[in-house]
Amino acid sequence: MPELPEVEALAGFLSDRMTGHAIARILPVAVSVLKTYDPPPDALHGRTVTSVGRRGKFLVLTTDDGAGPYLAVHLARGGWLRWKDDLPATAPRPGKGPLALRLLMAEPEGAGFDLTEAGTQKRLAVHCVRDLQDVPGIARLGPEPLGPAFTREVFAALLSGERRRIKGVLRDQGVIAGVGNAYSDEVLHAARMSPYALAANLSEEEVSRLYEALRTTLQDAVERSRGLAAGDLKGEKKTGLRVHGRTGEPCPVCGDTIREVSFSDSSLQYCPTCQTGGKPLADRRMSRLLK
Ligand SMILES: [Zn+2]
Questions:
Q1: 114 C-alpha to center of ligand 1: Å?
Q2: How much distance in Å is there from the Cα of 48 to the middle of ligand 1?
Q3: What is the spatial distance between Cα 88 and Cα 208, in angstroms, rounded to a whole number?
Q4: Which of the residues 9, 46, 183, 281 has an alpha carbon 20 to 30 A from that of 240?
Protein backbone atom coordinates (compact mmCIF):
# COMPACT_ATOMS: atom_id res chain seq x y z
CA MET A 1 0.00 0.00 0.00
CA PRO A 2 1.33 3.45 -0.85
CA GLU A 3 1.84 5.54 2.29
CA LEU A 4 2.64 9.20 2.94
CA PRO A 5 5.96 9.38 1.00
CA GLU A 6 4.67 7.57 -2.10
CA VAL A 7 1.38 9.49 -2.25
CA GLU A 8 3.31 12.75 -1.75
CA ALA A 9 5.57 11.89 -4.69
CA LEU A 10 2.61 10.79 -6.79
CA ALA A 11 0.90 14.14 -6.08
CA GLY A 12 4.03 15.99 -7.21
CA PHE A 13 4.27 13.90 -10.36
CA LEU A 14 0.62 14.57 -11.24
CA SER A 15 0.82 18.24 -10.29
CA ASP A 16 3.54 18.77 -12.93
CA ARG A 17 1.29 17.24 -15.58
CA MET A 18 -2.22 18.31 -14.60
CA THR A 19 -2.10 21.72 -12.93
CA GLY A 20 -3.57 24.40 -15.18
CA HIS A 21 -5.12 21.84 -17.51
CA ALA A 22 -8.77 20.86 -17.87
CA ILE A 23 -10.22 17.40 -17.25
CA ALA A 24 -12.03 16.00 -20.29
CA ARG A 25 -13.73 12.91 -18.93
CA ILE A 26 -13.81 10.58 -15.96
CA LEU A 27 -14.77 7.03 -16.79
CA PRO A 28 -15.48 4.70 -13.86
CA VAL A 29 -14.97 1.12 -15.00
CA ALA A 30 -15.23 -1.04 -11.88
CA VAL A 31 -18.61 -0.97 -10.16
CA SER A 32 -17.24 -0.52 -6.67
CA VAL A 33 -14.63 2.21 -7.28
CA LEU A 34 -16.79 5.35 -6.99
CA LYS A 35 -17.92 5.88 -3.38
CA THR A 36 -20.06 8.99 -3.98
CA TYR A 37 -22.90 9.81 -6.39
CA ASP A 38 -23.58 13.50 -5.75
CA PRO A 39 -21.98 15.39 -7.42
CA PRO A 40 -21.58 12.85 -10.25
CA PRO A 41 -18.10 12.48 -11.79
CA ASP A 42 -19.45 14.30 -14.87
CA ALA A 43 -19.37 17.45 -12.73
CA LEU A 44 -15.58 17.40 -13.15
CA HIS A 45 -15.71 17.42 -16.94
CA GLY A 46 -14.27 20.67 -18.26
CA ARG A 47 -12.96 21.71 -14.82
CA THR A 48 -9.39 22.98 -14.56
CA VAL A 49 -7.10 21.20 -12.11
CA THR A 50 -5.66 23.92 -9.87
CA SER A 51 -3.60 21.67 -7.60
CA VAL A 52 -2.80 18.04 -6.84
CA GLY A 53 -1.97 17.36 -3.22
CA ARG A 54 -2.14 14.80 -0.42
CA ARG A 55 -4.06 14.36 2.84
CA GLY A 56 -2.95 11.27 4.77
CA LYS A 57 -2.83 8.51 2.18
CA PHE A 58 -5.40 10.30 -0.02
CA LEU A 59 -4.46 11.89 -3.31
CA VAL A 60 -6.52 15.09 -3.72
CA LEU A 61 -7.26 16.92 -6.98
CA THR A 62 -8.59 20.44 -6.50
CA THR A 63 -10.51 21.96 -9.41
CA ASP A 64 -11.28 25.63 -10.11
CA ASP A 65 -9.49 26.65 -6.88
CA GLY A 66 -12.01 24.70 -4.79
CA ALA A 67 -15.05 26.15 -6.60
CA GLY A 68 -15.38 22.87 -8.49
CA PRO A 69 -15.67 19.39 -6.98
CA TYR A 70 -12.64 17.67 -5.46
CA LEU A 71 -11.53 14.25 -6.54
CA ALA A 72 -10.06 12.24 -3.65
CA VAL A 73 -8.41 8.89 -4.38
CA HIS A 74 -7.42 6.23 -1.83
CA LEU A 75 -5.32 3.56 -3.50
CA ALA A 76 -5.71 1.02 -0.65
CA ARG A 77 -3.59 -2.10 -0.64
CA GLY A 78 -3.81 -3.26 -4.25
CA GLY A 79 -4.48 -0.01 -6.07
CA TRP A 80 -2.11 1.92 -8.31
CA LEU A 81 -2.08 4.83 -10.72
CA ARG A 82 -0.53 4.74 -14.19
CA TRP A 83 -0.02 7.94 -16.15
CA LYS A 84 -0.14 7.64 -19.93
CA ASP A 85 0.28 10.14 -22.76
CA ASP A 86 -1.67 8.11 -25.30
CA LEU A 87 -4.87 6.82 -23.71
CA PRO A 88 -7.66 5.82 -26.09
CA ALA A 89 -10.65 8.19 -26.04
CA THR A 90 -13.20 5.38 -26.04
CA ALA A 91 -14.70 4.13 -22.83
CA PRO A 92 -13.06 0.93 -21.63
CA ARG A 93 -15.25 -2.11 -21.12
CA PRO A 94 -16.14 -2.96 -17.56
CA GLY A 95 -15.47 -6.40 -16.22
CA LYS A 96 -12.23 -8.32 -16.46
CA GLY A 97 -8.83 -6.86 -15.80
CA PRO A 98 -7.49 -4.52 -13.14
CA LEU A 99 -8.68 -1.21 -14.67
CA ALA A 100 -10.99 0.57 -12.20
CA LEU A 101 -11.23 4.15 -13.46
CA ARG A 102 -9.81 6.26 -16.29
CA LEU A 103 -9.31 10.03 -16.20
CA LEU A 104 -8.67 11.82 -19.50
CA MET A 105 -7.29 15.35 -19.74
CA ALA A 106 -8.69 17.78 -22.33
CA GLU A 107 -5.16 18.75 -23.26
CA PRO A 108 -2.73 17.46 -24.06
CA GLU A 109 -5.23 15.19 -25.77
CA GLY A 110 -4.87 11.53 -24.87
CA ALA A 111 -2.99 12.24 -21.62
CA GLY A 112 -4.41 11.04 -18.33
CA PHE A 113 -4.27 8.23 -15.84
CA ASP A 114 -5.67 4.80 -15.23
CA LEU A 115 -6.43 3.62 -11.71
CA THR A 116 -5.90 -0.10 -11.43
CA GLU A 117 -6.45 -2.57 -8.65
CA ALA A 118 -4.86 -5.97 -8.31
CA GLY A 119 -6.31 -8.79 -6.24
CA THR A 120 -9.81 -9.53 -5.14
CA GLN A 121 -10.24 -7.19 -2.17
CA LYS A 122 -11.41 -4.16 -4.23
CA ARG A 123 -10.83 -1.42 -1.71
CA LEU A 124 -9.60 1.27 -4.11
CA ALA A 125 -11.87 4.25 -3.45
CA VAL A 126 -12.60 7.39 -5.47
CA HIS A 127 -14.69 10.21 -4.02
CA CYS A 128 -16.13 13.17 -5.95
CA VAL A 129 -17.13 15.77 -3.35
CA ARG A 130 -17.84 19.49 -2.92
CA ASP A 131 -16.07 19.54 0.44
CA LEU A 132 -13.14 17.29 1.41
CA GLN A 133 -14.70 16.82 4.85
CA ASP A 134 -17.45 14.86 3.08
CA VAL A 135 -14.92 12.03 2.66
CA PRO A 136 -15.19 10.08 5.95
CA GLY A 137 -11.59 8.84 5.72
CA ILE A 138 -10.34 12.43 5.40
CA ALA A 139 -12.67 13.90 8.05
CA ARG A 140 -11.27 11.53 10.69
CA LEU A 141 -7.57 12.05 9.86
CA GLY A 142 -5.18 13.01 12.63
CA PRO A 143 -2.45 15.61 12.11
CA GLU A 144 0.11 15.44 9.31
CA PRO A 145 3.39 14.22 10.86
CA LEU A 146 5.58 16.35 8.59
CA GLY A 147 3.50 19.51 9.03
CA PRO A 148 5.01 22.51 10.88
CA ALA A 149 2.36 22.23 13.63
CA PHE A 150 3.38 18.64 14.47
CA THR A 151 5.76 19.38 17.35
CA ARG A 152 7.17 16.94 19.88
CA GLU A 153 4.58 18.27 22.37
CA VAL A 154 1.71 17.54 19.96
CA PHE A 155 3.07 14.02 19.48
CA ALA A 156 3.49 13.48 23.24
CA ALA A 157 -0.12 14.60 23.81
CA LEU A 158 -1.37 12.06 21.24
CA LEU A 159 0.43 9.26 23.09
CA SER A 160 -0.44 10.18 26.66
CA GLY A 161 -3.24 8.01 28.05
CA GLU A 162 -3.05 5.80 24.95
CA ARG A 163 -3.30 2.21 26.19
CA ARG A 164 -2.64 0.48 22.88
CA ARG A 165 0.62 -0.90 21.57
CA ILE A 166 2.71 1.71 19.80
CA LYS A 167 2.67 -0.18 16.48
CA GLY A 168 -1.12 0.08 16.27
CA VAL A 169 -1.12 3.71 17.40
CA LEU A 170 1.35 4.84 14.74
CA ARG A 171 -0.66 3.35 11.89
CA ASP A 172 -4.05 4.56 13.15
CA GLN A 173 -5.05 7.25 10.63
CA GLY A 174 -7.17 8.96 13.26
CA VAL A 175 -4.06 9.55 15.40
CA ILE A 176 -1.44 10.38 12.74
CA ALA A 177 -2.19 10.82 9.02
CA GLY A 178 -0.36 8.85 6.35
CA VAL A 179 1.66 6.22 8.26
CA GLY A 180 0.81 2.60 7.48
CA ASN A 181 2.17 -0.86 8.14
CA ALA A 182 5.47 -0.39 6.30
CA TYR A 183 6.61 2.96 7.69
CA SER A 184 5.47 2.17 11.23
CA ASP A 185 7.86 -0.82 11.12
CA GLU A 186 10.61 1.45 9.80
CA VAL A 187 10.02 4.18 12.38
CA LEU A 188 10.06 1.70 15.28
CA HIS A 189 13.28 0.14 14.00
CA ALA A 190 14.91 3.57 13.66
CA ALA A 191 13.76 4.41 17.21
CA ARG A 192 15.04 1.01 18.53
CA MET A 193 11.64 0.37 20.08
CA SER A 194 9.47 -2.73 20.44
CA PRO A 195 6.27 -2.66 18.37
CA TYR A 196 4.54 -4.06 21.47
CA ALA A 197 5.53 -1.19 23.79
CA LEU A 198 2.47 0.48 25.30
CA ALA A 199 2.23 4.06 24.06
CA ALA A 200 1.28 5.54 27.42
CA ASN A 201 4.26 3.87 29.13
CA LEU A 202 6.95 5.51 26.99
CA SER A 203 9.44 7.67 28.90
CA GLU A 204 10.09 11.30 27.94
CA GLU A 205 13.32 10.21 26.29
CA GLU A 206 11.55 7.46 24.33
CA VAL A 207 8.88 9.87 23.11
CA SER A 208 11.62 12.21 21.86
CA ARG A 209 13.46 9.34 20.16
CA LEU A 210 10.27 8.12 18.49
CA TYR A 211 9.33 11.64 17.38
CA GLU A 212 12.73 12.14 15.75
CA ALA A 213 12.57 8.71 14.09
CA LEU A 214 9.07 9.41 12.76
CA ARG A 215 10.01 12.74 11.21
CA THR A 216 13.40 11.61 9.85
CA THR A 217 12.18 8.30 8.40
CA LEU A 218 9.26 9.93 6.58
CA GLN A 219 11.26 12.96 5.44
CA ASP A 220 14.04 10.73 4.05
CA ALA A 221 11.51 8.61 2.18
CA VAL A 222 9.83 11.73 0.76
CA GLU A 223 13.24 13.01 -0.43
CA ARG A 224 14.07 9.68 -2.08
CA SER A 225 10.71 9.47 -3.84
CA ARG A 226 10.47 13.08 -4.98
CA GLY A 227 10.64 13.54 -8.73
CA LEU A 228 10.31 9.84 -9.50
CA ALA A 229 7.89 8.75 -12.19
CA ALA A 230 4.72 7.09 -10.93
CA GLY A 231 5.91 3.74 -12.28
CA ASP A 232 9.17 3.84 -10.27
CA LEU A 233 7.70 4.63 -6.86
CA LYS A 234 6.86 1.11 -5.76
CA GLY A 235 10.39 -0.12 -6.46
CA GLU A 236 11.89 2.84 -4.62
CA LYS A 237 9.72 2.20 -1.56
CA LYS A 238 10.82 -1.43 -1.42
CA THR A 239 14.52 -0.59 -1.81
CA GLY A 240 14.38 2.06 0.91
CA LEU A 241 12.79 -0.13 3.59
CA ARG A 242 15.24 -1.53 6.16
CA VAL A 243 13.10 -4.08 8.04
CA HIS A 244 9.60 -4.06 6.59
CA GLY A 245 9.08 -7.02 4.25
CA ARG A 246 12.61 -8.29 4.97
CA THR A 247 11.92 -11.31 7.21
CA GLY A 248 14.99 -13.58 7.35
CA GLU A 249 17.39 -10.94 5.99
CA PRO A 250 20.15 -9.42 8.14
CA CYS A 251 19.38 -6.16 9.95
CA PRO A 252 21.36 -3.38 8.19
CA VAL A 253 22.29 -1.91 11.59
CA CYS A 254 23.39 -4.92 13.67
CA GLY A 255 23.27 -7.98 11.38
CA ASP A 256 20.75 -9.92 13.48
CA THR A 257 18.05 -11.79 11.54
CA ILE A 258 14.91 -9.74 10.95
CA ARG A 259 11.83 -11.50 12.32
CA GLU A 260 8.13 -11.13 11.82
CA VAL A 261 4.87 -11.47 13.68
CA SER A 262 1.98 -12.40 11.45
CA PHE A 263 -1.67 -11.53 11.90
CA SER A 264 -4.71 -12.60 9.91
CA ASP A 265 -4.37 -9.90 7.25
CA SER A 266 -0.91 -8.38 7.78
CA SER A 267 2.48 -8.92 9.38
CA LEU A 268 5.05 -6.76 11.10
CA GLN A 269 8.82 -7.03 10.89
CA TYR A 270 11.42 -6.03 13.48
CA CYS A 271 14.99 -6.67 14.60
CA PRO A 272 15.22 -8.43 17.98
CA THR A 273 18.68 -7.03 18.83
CA CYS A 274 17.80 -3.44 17.93
CA GLN A 275 14.25 -3.40 19.26
CA THR A 276 13.36 -6.07 21.81
CA GLY A 277 16.54 -6.72 23.83
CA GLY A 278 17.34 -9.76 21.67
CA LYS A 279 14.10 -11.56 22.54
CA PRO A 280 11.84 -12.65 19.68
CA LEU A 281 8.23 -11.55 20.07
CA ALA A 282 5.71 -14.34 20.49
CA ASP A 283 4.44 -15.66 17.19
CA ARG A 284 3.46 -19.31 16.93
CA ARG A 285 3.72 -19.51 13.16
CA MET A 286 7.24 -18.05 12.96
CA SER A 287 8.66 -19.99 15.90
CA ARG A 288 7.60 -23.15 14.12
CA LEU A 289 9.28 -22.04 10.88
CA LEU A 290 12.55 -21.01 12.50
CA LYS A 291 13.00 -24.11 14.70
ZN1 LIG B 1 19.29 -4.74 14.27
A1: 40
A2: 49
A3: 52
A4: 281
